[in-house]
């Protein structure tokens, strides 16, 4: 087979291709023949390397079909994406219009409710003369009692100190009589000392107990006033 026969068979087999496409393909194979002849090869050797022209034409046709299918797929994807973008735009527009038409759907919309405080105020006014004022009086009385307990505990401690001093130095210090009750001279001084120590300890316990009572009273008073204030909220 000669070069011209090879190229004619290839040209006839490329049916469906445009003139420019055929010319480009044939030009490539003419170049192959020229290069082969420059290297000292015969037509048969060059054709053997290139292959059957019918198979070459089939190869070009299959590549052309694959290229067309790929272009069609790309066009389909582009159209599909454009359609989806248009649909999304339409949905967003509809959503915005629905939010504008119905403010309850807006995320920034907040529903405020102001409770009516009139019933709570009435309850507070009704409780004031019967519960609140008497309770305040009772609380003040309890604080007064605790203040008296503090004074009593201090008096007991001072008495214990006086008895202890009497047990150590006697009933008179620098001509000042620190203990004065009948028959005090008949009581031994060690007894006065230990009695004074016991009295100081009793006064200290009394004082600690009074501190515990005032803490409990403060806690109860705080809860009471918190309950009263909650009626006005």
Automatic annotation (TrEMBL):
Transmembrane residue ranges: 121-143, 149-170, 191-217
Record bears the keyword Membrane: yes
Keyword field: Membrane, Transmembrane, Transmembrane helix
Region (Disordered): 68-106
Composition-biased stretches (Low complexity): 69-96
Protein name (Swiss-Prot/TrEMBL): Putative membrane protein
Organism of this sequence: Clostridium algidicarnis DSM 15099
């Amino acid at each position: 087979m000669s070069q011209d026969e090879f190229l004619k068979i290839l040209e006839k087999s490329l049916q469906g291709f445009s003139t420019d496409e055929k010319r480009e393909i044939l030009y490539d194979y003419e170049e192959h023949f020229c290069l082969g002849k420059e290297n000292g090869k015969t037509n048969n050797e060059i054709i053997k390397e290139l292959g059957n022209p019918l198979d070459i034409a089939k190869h070009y046709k299959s590549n052309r079909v694959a290229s067309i299918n790929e272009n069609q797929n790309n066009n389909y994807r582009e159209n599909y994406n454009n359609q989806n973008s248009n649909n999304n735009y339409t949905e967003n527009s509809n959503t915005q219009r629905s939010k504008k038409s119905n403010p309850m759907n807006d995320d920034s919309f907040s529903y405020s409710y102001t409770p009516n405080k009139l019933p709570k105020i009435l309850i507070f006014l009704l409780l004031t003369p019967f519960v609140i004022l008497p309770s305040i009086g009772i609380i003040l009385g309890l604080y007064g009692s605790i203040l008296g307990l503090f004074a009593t505990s201090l008096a007991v401690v001072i008495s214990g100190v006086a008895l202890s001093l009497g047990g150590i130095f006697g009933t008179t210090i620098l001509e000042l009589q620190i203990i004065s009750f009948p028959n005090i001279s008949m009581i031994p001084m060690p007894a006065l000392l230990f009695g004074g120590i016991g009295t100081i300890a009793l006064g200290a316990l009394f004082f600690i107990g009074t501190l515990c009572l005032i803490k409990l009273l403060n806690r109860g008073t705080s809860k009471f006033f918190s309950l009263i204030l909650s009626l006005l909220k």
